[in-house]
Amino acid sequence: MKNNKLFILIIISLIIGVTLGGIVHYQFQDSIEVFSKNIKLLGTIFIRLVQMIIAPLVFCTLVVGIAKMGDMKMVGRVGGKAMAWFISASLISLLLGLMLVNFFAPGKGTSIKLDDTTAASELLENSKGFSLEEFVKHVIPKSLFEALATNEILQIVIFSIIFGVALASFSKKEAKPIIKLLDRVSHVVLKMVSYIMWTAPLGVLGAVASAIAKHGFEVFTLYAKYLGAFLVGIIVLWLILLTVGYLILGKRLFVLLERIKSPLLIAFSTTSSEAVFPKMVEELERFGCQPKIVSFTLPLGYSFNLDGSMMYMTFASIFIAQVYGIEMSLPEQLTMLLVLMLTSKGVAGVPRASLIVVVATCAMFGIPPEGIALILPIDHFCDMARSMTNVLGNALSTAAIDKWETKSEGNEGIN
Predict the structure, then answer these.
(1) Domain extents for the chain?
(2) CATH code for 1-409?
(3) Of the ranges 17-31, 135-149, 282-296, which one carries the lowest mean pLDDT score?
(4) E-state strands within 22-169
(5) Burial of 281 (0-12, 13-18, 19+ CB in 10 A)
(6) What pLDDT does residue 349 have?
(7) CA 253, 255, 257: angle at the middle one, nearest 5?
């Protein structure tokens, strides 16, 4: 019941946000900048409240999950299944983006003009060219406290896995006090989640009203070809994910979708799949997934399984090349796909993070990186769809791996 109340409140906030943003954009044009900046703070407050609890939640749940598994064979087995899913899903998403952007060619003969690139200057400054050194630095934490302070999910995951494996090597009697403490902390954090989620409707209202007030509805007609092609991609990707989900979960898939409808809507409205991570832990456990599987698979998914972002990266990179009239051969495009496969890892569900990866990739392949300014006006609306898709992909992967594990444990029990 509480879940339905929150869902209804978010829908109402979404409608109010669109209406309010539209009124300001068309009736009070002098106030657009001030209004957008101030109302966006509601979204910022919500996202920061959630970000505040992500690091302790990932650390506690992941360490407890691994320690409770106890058997390192099980950790390896679950990790292997998770990575097989993530790599397969990532490749399918990247390939889908590549195929659709070549098929629809939204960047060819476009009416979109690049008059001002100042909006892209911050992204250009933040992005670094891909190198093996940068990749290693991004993956392996220099300090746990630095990773916790900056919410680097992948780095926290790496430390937590090593810590959990080390803890599991101790006897049950020695490890029990630490496991019990971290388990209690994770439950306290999940209790905080239930409070924080009631601020989600305000966050949704602020994020949506700010975007509509700034860009108005005309942006949809100017970018109709780009948005149309991207929307087809999202629909196809959802069909693929739901079909695979149905083949594995059967009719339980609809129960799962019912459970995650609020996280999906929050991710859609706030453009951050990271914002719903704590709520996802809660809902997947309510769905019936084992806590140890959820706490191990979901944090990994947030670093390695961002299906919507993956599809968008190839789509956006080739679109910019098309606008500039740069022809890329199939081998070049496939090389770009493999580079994106690496550079995107650990991006997490942070708004606009995938744009930084696109900028770095464009620079590598001789595509003017300032071309990112072309898609900035519409990126917020694309980010809504890709964030929601990331959440769906992670929910399905966790539920599927939990089912496989339950089945294999059952078979072991029979044997």
Answers:
(1) 1-409
(2) 1.10.3860.10
(3) 135-149
(4) none
(5) buried
(6) 44
(7) 70
One-letter amino acid of 163: F
* Residue that is written with structure tokens 């979708």 in the block: 257
Token pair belonging to 388: 């929601």
Read off the tokens for 148: 């916790």
Which positions ≥6 away from 179 have C-beta within 8 Å?
A: 63, 64, 67, 68, 167
Question: In terms of Cα–Cα distance, which of 16, 47, 46, 22 is closest to 36?
Answer: 22
Give the CA angle between residues 246, 248, 253 to the nearest 5°: 40
Sign of the CA dihedral 137, 164, 267, 31?
negative
d(CA 181, CA 167): 13
Is 127 strand, coil or helix? Answer: coil
The amino acid at 135: F
pLDDT of residue 240: 96
Query: Which among 230, 265, 197, 188 has a CA at the least distance from the CA of 99?
Result: 230
Least confident of 37-51, 130-144, 177-191: 130-144
What number of other Cβ atoms are within 10 A of residue 128's Cβ? 14
Q: How far apart are CA 354 and CA 203, in angstroms?
A: 21
